[in-house]
Amino acid sequence: MALAIVEYVSWEQYLKSIELEFFSFGLTLEVLDRSQAEGVIKRAFLKENSFAKVLKLQHGFLPSDKQVIKIKLEIDVNPPEGSFYETQYLDYPYPFSILCQDLSSLFAGKCHSLLCRKYIKGRDWFDFLWYMSKKTQVNYKLLSNALFQTGPFKGKETIVNKDWLVENLQLRINEIDWKTVRLDIEPFLKPEDQKFIENWNKELFLSMIKKLETFLL
User: Can you give the pLDDT of all 217 residues of the chain as single tens digits?
Assistant: First the structure.
């Protein structure tokens, strides 16, 4: 999610509050600078001009259980313009509101990742199918500004519309090694759910693009 510029000091205060909150539940939380993150996590940062931290959460239910959960937090200090926002309400752990990007802006960000990420991330395509299932529109202005900032279209005045997006997603789908995509997402699925990605291939996703074309404005 793209956020406005946040001063380093104020961000550190939030991290300290998060650390204390986890500690109150008996969980150890270690805050790592982006520069200290392992290679795989470093690669997860799409933008260079961002302020980022990795939260390393350790918990153990048994002495032999040494599970570690890593949560990436990133603030884009130069977010592309054009996002739409909406207020959502949650009731756990207590009722509160949160301002977040609307679905069209989130889908625009996902399309930017699909077109510009330098490595294969199967979850990008999993998310793409989710947006497809909701018949989500794309915030073209936000996507255009994001493409101008980073990726192979950086610095180019790209006019993004339905035709442009459909064409470039098709090109991306044709060049991807879909076996690599499946292998990347398998660890995140339960064994009984892995059958749902067995048929992930070029032809399947090209057919999804045709469906996308039918409802995009």
Answer: 334 444 444 666 777 777 777 777 666 667 666 545 444 434 444 444 444 445 555 555 555 555 666 667 677 778 899 999 999 998 877 888 999 999 999 999 999 999 999 888 999 999 999 999 999 999 999 999 999 998 899 999 888 999 999 999 999 999 999 999 999 999 888 888 888 898 999 999 999 999 999 999 9
Q: Collapsing DSSP states into helix, strand and coil, what is residue 33? A: strand
With beta carbons less than 8 A apart as the criterion, state whether 209 and 166 touch.
yes
Taking a C-beta distance cutoff of 8 angstroms, is the pair 206, 170 a contact? yes
Give the Cα-Cα-Cα angle 32, 35, 36 (nearest 5 degrees).
45
Contacts of residue 145, defined as CB under 8 A and 6 or more positions apart, other chains included, come to 80, 81, 82
Whether the pTM exceeds 0.85: the reply is no
Taking alpha carbons only, the member of 64, 80, 62, 54 closest to residue 149 is: 80
What is the C-alpha separation between 70 and 28, in angstroms, rounded? Answer: 12
d(CA 29, CA 13): 15
CA angle, residues 2, 110, 206, in degrees to nearest 5: 170
Other Cβ atoms within 10 Å of 140 Cβ, number = 20
